[in-house]
Write a structure and sequence with these properties.
The chain has 187 residues and is mainly α. The chain contains nine helices and no strands.
């Protein structure tokens, strides 16, 4: 056993590695403690229950997958930024191939709510970054959006489309990018 103090971050790094290699269902307190070379009690210090460990791991994986750079927001056109987002999420899916099938993991009701809240938090961040990118693109037509077709509606449509393409394992989002260009640059 490792006698040195292990940080929560080191434990989560190990958990991400396990999820990447064996899927989320492989995560349990004993396996994580063994892989981190710490006593089981040390693990319980950071994560009082398996649910807490699972939720923290899910949060950590979401964070790793959705590391969308803010630098491209101002330097790329909106379609270029969406393409970058698509490719970044694709890389995350390759890194964690079974992560998006987390519905097979059984949580308590409280755990399900926390997992959903975590996912919604990262989706809200993605939407916010997409909206910033849209606002930064100086070539977007000024009369495109209205009360019936808001920027928020457009971003929701784009993100839903990106997720559909990823679920369908499409290699590119070129058709979506063309739809975006014809929508925001045609007026």
């Amino acid at each position: 056993m490792n006698t040195s103090v292990t940080s929560k971050e080191a434990i989560l790094e190990n958990c991400r590695k396990l999820v990447s290699e064996k899927g989320l269902s492989s995560l349990n307190m004993r396996t994580v403690a063994k892989n981190c070379e710490v006593a089981l009690g040390s693990l319980y210090y950071y994560f009082p229950s398996k649910n807490d460990l699972l939720i923290a791991t899910i949060e950590s994986v979401w964070e790793d997958i959705f590391q969308l750079s803010d630098s491209g927001i101002n330097n790329l056109s909106f379609p270029e930024y969406i393409d970058q987002c698509f490719k970044q999420i694709q890389l995350g899916i390759k890194k964690y191939p079974n992560f998006f099938t987390i519905h097979s993991i059984s949580f308590s009701t409280k755990g399900q709510n926390r997992a959903r809240d975590c996912m919604e938090h990262y989706i809200a961040q993605i939407k916010e970054k997409m909206l910033c990118s849209l606002h930064s693109d100086k070539y977007v037509g000024k009369s495109i959006f209205s009360n019936e077709f808001t920027e928020s509606d457009f971003i929701d449509f784009i993100l839903s489309s990106v997720i559909c393409l990823l679920v369908q394992k499409k290699k590119s989002c070129d058709t979506l990018l063309e739809v975006i260009k014809r929508t925001i640059y045609s007026h």
